[in-house]
Fold this sequence. Notes:
By secondary structure, the protein is α/β, with parallel strands linked by helices. It has 3 helices and 3 strands. The mean pLDDT is about 85.
Amino acid sequence: MMPLNRKWPIRELMQAAKYYVDKSRQRITIEYVLMDGVNDSAQDAKRLKALVRGVLCKINLIPYNATEGKFRRPSEARIMQFYQRLASLRAPVTIRWSKGDDIEAGCGQLAVKNQT
């Protein structure tokens, strides 16, 4: 969970998602980008489980693709721990391993390095 959801608070988004699922009977997909030390702890997994409880959904865990910024991808072991903490959910959970992160272009992310 990112602590900067001011424009669209997560609780309101989840209420809308639940409404959509109830009316459409369609599964939603939750994309959860894992960032080292930001949202990859046991407590974060617990909060995510509570947030999606009762919602027909699939969860894609997406390890962050590091660039020159301050955020980092969690270790593979930490990613797997987070994944395993979600095992008790009735929702399918997948890890979306990226291709292209070696050139800073993984999972829709495209970075440009400044040339001086």
